[in-house]
Amino acid sequence: MIILYRGRGLLTFFIFILVIAAEDFLIKKIGWTSRSDHSALFAWSVAIVNWSLGRYLNRRTLETKKGFWLRIFYNAPHQFLCLPMELWSIPLFAFGFFCFFS
Q1: Is residue 79 assigned to a domain?
Q2: Is residue 3 part of a domain?
Q3: Which of 40, 55, 47, 51 is nearest to 101 (CA)?
């Protein structure tokens, strides 16, 4: 399996795995049944942690460009699968909303 990353972008993958493992442990420890709103809560927590860490690590960009799409898909020093670390928080927030409202 090939995982494309640059800098510390691989932390995105490990943050996701760590929080999912913590979710599984806490749900079993507390005795809750696995419900979609609990999954939404933990998906949002992964997104917040990943966004904060990604913005902190990518605070110094390699070059600054103008334009909406160029600001989102910028040449970040820390990337995971060729996208900036913090950009991976958007699908996690969307997954959380999907779990919460389903």
Answers
A1: yes
A2: no
A3: 40
